[in-house]
Amino acid sequence: LTRERYPVKRLPFSVVSGEDLAAFERIVPGRVITDPEVLEASNVDWLRTVRGSSVLLLRPRTTEEVSHILRHCHERNLAVNPQGGNTGMVGGSVPVFDEVILSTALMNQVISFHNMSGTLVCQAGCVLEDLSRHVEERGFVMPLDLGAKGSCHIGGNVATNAGGLRFLRYGSLHGTVLGLEAVLADGTVLNCLSTLRKDNTGYDLKQLFIGSEGTLGVITAVSILCPPKPRAVSVAFLGCPGFSEVLQTFTTCKGLLGEILSAYEFMDAECMWLVTHHLRLASPVQESPFYVLIETSGSRAGHDAEKLNDFLEQVLSSGLVTDGTVATDHLKVKALWALRERISEALSRDGYVYKYDLSLPTERLYDLVTDLRVRLGPRAKHVVGYGHLGDGNLHLNVTSEAFSPSVLGTLEPYVYEWTAEQRGSVSAEHGLGFKKRGVLGYSKPPEALRLMRQLKALLDPKGILNPYKTLPAQA
Ligand code: FAD
Ligand code: MLT
Ligand code: ZN
Hints:
The chain has 4 domains: 104 residues, Uridine Diphospho-n-acetylenolpyruvylglucosamine Reductase, domain 2, CATH 3.30.43.10; 116 residues, Uridine Diphospho-n-acetylenolpyruvylglucosamine Reductase, domain 3, CATH 3.30.465; 110 residues, Alpha-Beta Plaits (2-Layer Sandwich); 93 residues, Alpha-Beta Plaits, CATH 3.30.70.2740. The chain is 35% helix and 20% strand. Strands 13-10-12-11-15-16-14 form a 7-stranded antiparallel beta sheet, with helices on both faces. The chain has a 5-stranded antiparallel beta sheet with strand order 5-6-9-7-8. A 4-stranded mixed beta sheet has the order 1-2-4-3. Strand 5 and strand 6 form a beta hairpin. The two termini are 23 Å apart. The mean pLDDT is 97. The site of flavin-adenine dinucleotide has 38 residues, from strand 3, helix 6 and strand 9. D-malate binds next to helix 14.
């Protein structure tokens, strides 16, 4: 299925032999998995649209074990697929052919947490939600949050430079990751696990690995700066009559909520239909063409409530918002967030999903959705728009009963050309992985692509790390 849709040829890597298995058994005893049933889950991605045929899954516990594995693979010319929680959206997390899967699932130890600075140092396989719990018990929060928190690993988050729901407030992982440790393709351990806020001693090498999607090295540990846990969190879920009102509400919100604004997410009526029908979630507000979720995080509940009330009064009286609800209670806050966080889950229950993750000028962000609804007509079940509006990031998703070449032909290259015309990005936060590697050229000039290839050749001369991913296929 995968190879028909994305034609690609296996590169001349070696095939895993009995001797290789014996060598791996010495490196990670009892953690060399060849059982096809166990391997199945690691061969298929979350969206269930790409499938590899790896016969080997390795589960190291330490950096040293990762180093020995890679040294062996490098010597033997075996291709490797680093894998975290396997929640990636672009087919980067699963093998394309028979690459050895190197999972970080057992590298799940917190190494240290500094109570004063909020600096967390941990292994790459820690699950994001576990880390959130760990730091929240100590009065801090993780600087990132996403719907996949229950499964994704911090190493996978760093490898994809995941954005998510707190980006608006705490910014990119390029700013919050203070250091990392990575193992290079030949087994060299690069220890840049600094915990310093400032360190201008030459090139900032860790930045190369943030967003490198497992193509330059295997991230084995990270050090990350956690902000203090806000004492007061409120969520407002509002209905808006049009996209223009969504934008004006955002402007009003920035003006009136200012420093306490911590998320501004939007979803359209079709998204609400999907979560209420497929997941049986209840909408808390009257039916509207658009919905926005606004989160505030501050240090004094009274002060935040006052600001939020002023804001709500203004947007309701001016007609920008037609209905809304506010929650401060933890469970109600969680229920409101679920409406937004679980859209991708509802979409995958609807049919085959064509997924686009674009950065666009905010004013034009929804035009593409409206335009595609007309172009696709009844061939699409749903054409939906949602996402991190506060960051200019649209998630445009289309579903059809089953994969349809005609729907794909209408979507591509149209979506990418439209995005390039706006000087947007064809991958705002999900990365390129296997599915999007061919479209990098819409957002980057040839000179940048050439430099990326040179860096890849320097760090991974045999190309064993995540081949067929991120960089376009060589002509
Ligand atoms: P995987 O999926 O296992 O891997 C992703 C990529 O990173 C692969 O290329 C893999 O080879 C590489 N990789 C993994 N671990 C390592 C490592 N230790 N060293 C080197 N390379 C590695 N993304 C967002 O940006 N924002 C969102 O809001 C968001 N929400 C999501 C919600 C849901 C429900 C789901 C399913 C996904 C969502 N994602 C989101 C996608 C996002 O990319 C992942 O959830 C997450 O960052 C990937 O982490 P993972 O551990 O699952 O990595
Ligand atoms: C989200 O914001 O919900 C995620 O990035 C997942 C998706 O795009 O569906
Ligand atoms: Zn997202």
